[in-house]
Sequence to fold (218 residues):
Amino acid sequence: MTNLIFDYDGTIHNSMLTYAPAFRDTMKWLSHNGYISDREYADKEISHWLGFNSTDMWNQFHPELDPVIREKARVMLGEDMARRVDSGEGALYEGAEDMLSELRAKGYTLIFLSNCRFHYLERHKRVFRLDRFFHCFYCCEAYDFIPKYEIFRRIAPEHEGDYIVIGDRFHDIETAVKNGLPSIGCGYGFGSRDELADADIIVDDIRDIPSAVEKLRR
Fold:
C-alpha cells in the first residue's frame, strides 16, 4: 500500500485567490495605523509566505512589530481569508478534483498534511468537501507548529506501507529528504525551482501527478 502525503496550499488549493487580497488589506491596516510603512506588494512577494505556518510567517516578515500587533494582524488576515473562502472566492486548481479522485480510485491512501490551523482545515474540508478525497487530515497546529518533517515522523506509525510526498514548497521536499522518502515537486505552485531541486520528479501540471506517482512506484 502506498500513502500519498499531500501538501494543500499551492499544491491542491490556489491560495493566492484569497491570500493576496487579504494580505494587502492587512498591510493597509498596519500602515494606516502607523505600524509599518505604506507600500505596494507584488504577487511574488506575497506568495513567498504561502506554505509557512502563520506564526512563523509573521515572526519572520515583521519581527520588529509588537507581538500583540503581530497576533492581531495574523488573526485579521486569517479571518479575511475565511470570509473570502465562504463567499466563493477560493478555488482548487483546475484538474485537482479529477486527479485526487483518480488516485483514490486506484487504491492509494491520500493523506493531507498542511502548515495550517484547525479552523482553516475545517473550513476547507467543508467548502471543498475534501473528505471525498483524503483518508486522513493533519495540520501543524495539532503538533505545536513543529516542522512538517517532524510531524511526519509522528504520524508515520499510524499507516502501513510506503510513502510519497507531494508538494510545492521546501517544507514538503525537506520532509521527503529528511525521512528518506521519494517526492514529487509541484512546479505550478508557489515554490521556486531551487526549492524543488531535490524532488525526484517535478510536474508543471497538476494532471501529471498520477503518472509521476506511477513512475516512482516502479
